[in-house]
Amino acid sequence: MHHDVLLIVTLLMLGAATLVWIARRLRLSPIIAYLILGVIAGTYRQTLFTGEEGAQTLAELGVVLLMFFIGLEFHLDQIRSMLKVCLGGGALQVVITSLAAGLIAHAAGAAPITAAIIGVMIAFSSTALVMKVFEDRKESDSHRARVFLAVGLLQDLAAIVAVVLLPLVASFAETGQSSGKVSPLNTAGRLGVLFVLLPILFFAARSLLPRIFSHAAQAREPEVFTLISLSASLCVGFAAYVAGASLPLGAFLGGLVLSRTPFTSQIMAELNTVRNLSLGFFFVTIGALVDLRYVIGNLPLVLGGVLLVLILKSVLGFIALIAVRTPATIAAGVALPLAEVGEFSFVLGQQASHAGLLSAGEYRYVLAVAVLSLLPAPFLTGASGRFGVWANDTLASLLGPRAAAWLNPAFEVPKAPHAPALSASTLDAMAKRPKAVVVGYGPVGRTLTRILGDFGIHPTVIDMNIDTVKKLQGIGISAVYGDAGRREILQAAGIEKAAYLLVTLPDLTGRIPVIATAKIMNPDIKVVARARYLAERAMLEDAGATNVAYEEAEVAVALAEFLLREIGAAEEDIEKEAARIRAEISLRTGFSSILPAARMPKKNA
Fold first, then answer.
1. Same domain, 270 and 372
2. Is the dihedral of CA 163, 164, 167, 168 positive or negative?
3. 368 and 465 both lie in a single domain
4. 402 and 261 share a domain?
5. What is the CA radius of gyration of the chain?
6. Which residues contact 344 (CB under 8 A, 6 or more apart)?
7. Which residues pair with 528 in a beta bridge?
8. Domain range enclosing 531
9. Which residues lie closer than 8 Å to 132 by C-beta, 6 or more apart?
């Protein structure tokens, strides 16, 4: 690596770290920081981005991994239940937005074909940006996020079709008829192959990937699992790309294949850092596309275009969703995140510019409007819930109760996978039960899990043995596969709502990260940790352990009991001596002392 390239990377990383820190202090999305850094860096584009193709590749990696993660969190049942929104609302949104934006561009002086391309570019929204904001706000499972993703998937398919059709459009624009290399028949063939190969790819991956991950999990080598996780997302994405689709859509399919497997949480934990860094670089490169001097020189025109795009797309997105009988609250809440221009628009715009369908001035203007429309997107997404409620109430007051009832039809929201068919009272009772997370399912973990259930505490087990996790899930015990020292694994186990954490891992180096991370995520949780030696006590308590049980002390007790029985001591004396030994060694088992006292069993007289 050349020294100047290393310097550029270092400056970008320092700039990103500084701006993200400032954004967090101001309670803003870090995406804003990345975009601003990109706009600033774009002023020195020729110096900074000498290897533009390499930068674009790294940027696309972030989008691929994000779509892979979205697929992991999504489920086929949800897609089936959202089919009407996806095919109906998504298609209608793309069509009417493309027509409206194209007509406006034509009225502003663009040629018909150019206006059509601009209209299609404006129709797409940024799935990567909006879903990242939903995720940061812990709303990725909300009704708005699911409906937005359904529309976004249709937009992605439409974008692929647009990219495939673009060479045919360029051929017609140049000669007035299709050339031999680019004919309607060839284009139709490419589209046909695409929509035939994608299902084949999905079912092939569905058969193969879980088996690969099962073998990787049984190897119990973190590096192997990490490499397999990264390779799987890229391989399925690349296979989709070869079939004629896009890398992000293929990665989404790969994630969807693994969404119901026990590996989901650990995959997300392994790739989360790589994904966030790559995605951050993606937004930096998007921001760098803007010519800041051009924006400043044409500020009123550019800002007017941004405002027009945001209003137009919000209104038409709302109309499209209402047309497929989406409740007004959700439709308005989704319309705001649909307002910005998406990442696929930049791909389409670059290809159209290279094909001569967009002039340099037209491309520069549309690009500036598109990138700047991303800046308010995190704010619009954050406010979408409140805006949906306000819009529904306003329409109800203006149009009357009958119109309000029509605007809010029954809307079936997809349930979480494997949701139990239990009554409301049963679910409410389960929700009120205290919860505990047990890390490790060896002999100690098995015993504690049984005791927790006996005392009315709902246990969730975390273990690195995939076979153990599958068996526990098979008998109805909540279990998560993965490294409990990772935030994503603890989050999947419900650590933020748990009352107790019981760490039974034999190694000190494995226990401390689990305890420290859990206390950060849930400061009020009571932690019981296993320790082999008394010397470990201080380190475990410093990490956040509430109570520590020492194996060393139990060995002393066992030896003393054996010796006293051998010399014929009375059982009462043996019990007293055992209690005295525990007191001398300052043993605190912790488990019985932190359970609800009312549930403790009485000793037999």
1. yes
2. negative
3. no
4. yes
5. 29
6. 124, 155, 156, 159, 163, 246
7. 502, 547
8. 427-546+590-599
9. 29, 31, 66, 279
Q: Is 559 domain-assigned?
A: no
Residues 75/138, Cβ–Cβ less than 8 Å: no
What confidence tens digit (pLDDT) does each residue in 428-475 have?
Answer: 554 556 788 999 888 778 877 887 787 778 889 999 888 888 889 888
d(CA 544, CA 542) in angstroms, rounded, equals 5
Which residues, at least 6 apart from 270, have a Cβ–Cβ distance to it below 8 Å? 222, 225, 226, 229, 230
Q: Collapse the DSSP code of 413 into the 3-class scheme (helix H, G, I; strand E, B; otherwise coil) and give the result.
A: coil
Distance of alpha carbon 501 from alpha carbon 3, whole angstroms: 48
Residue with tokens 């139709």: 188
Distance CA 223, CA 23 (A): 33
Q: What is the distance of C-alpha 418 from the center of its chain?
A: 20
Angle at which helix 360-374 crosses helix 299-323, to 10 degrees, equals 60
Task: Report yes or no on 459 lying in a domain.
Answer: yes
Residue 529 has φ and ψ, to the nearest 5°, of: -125, 145
Please list, in sequence order, all residues whose beta carbon lies within 8 angstroms of the beta carbon of residue 605, skipping any fewer than 6 positions away. none
pTM: 0.66
**551 residue type, one letter:** E
| 8 A C-beta contact, residue 170 and residue 421 | no
d(C-alpha 589, C-alpha 54), whole Å: 56
Give the domain CATH number at 271: 1.20.1530.20
CA trace torsion 561, 562, 563, 568 (10° rounding) = 90
**Average confidence (pLDDT) over 32-61:** 66
Strand partners, 507: none
| Residue 553 within a domain | no
Under 8 Å between Cβ of 199 and 253: no
Same domain assignment for residues 55 and 162: yes
**Residue 419 confidence (pLDDT):** 42
**Strands, sheet with 547-550, edge to edge from the N-terminal-most edge strand:** 478-481, 458-463, 435-439, 500-503, 526-531, 547-550
What does the block give as tokens for 202? 């999905």
Q: Which residues pair with 530 in a beta bridge?
A: 549
- 216 and 352 in a common domain: yes
Q: Is the dihedral of CA 456, 460, 464, 470 positive or negative?
A: positive
Q: Is 105 in contact with 118 (CB distance < 8 Å)?
A: yes
The encoded tokens of residue 315 equal 């209104």
Q: CB–CB of 239/252 below 8 Å?
A: no
Q: Give tens-digit pLDDT for 195-237.
A: 677 777 777 777 788 888 887 777 767 777 778 877 877 787 7
**Within this chain, do residues 373 and 507 fall inside the same structural domain, yes or no?**
no
Is there a single domain that holds both residue 198 and residue 143? yes
Domain count, the chain: 2
Residue with tokens 């674009």: 56
Give the residue carrying structure tokens 């935030």.
Answer: 487
Last residue within a domain, chosen from 355, 375, 406? 406
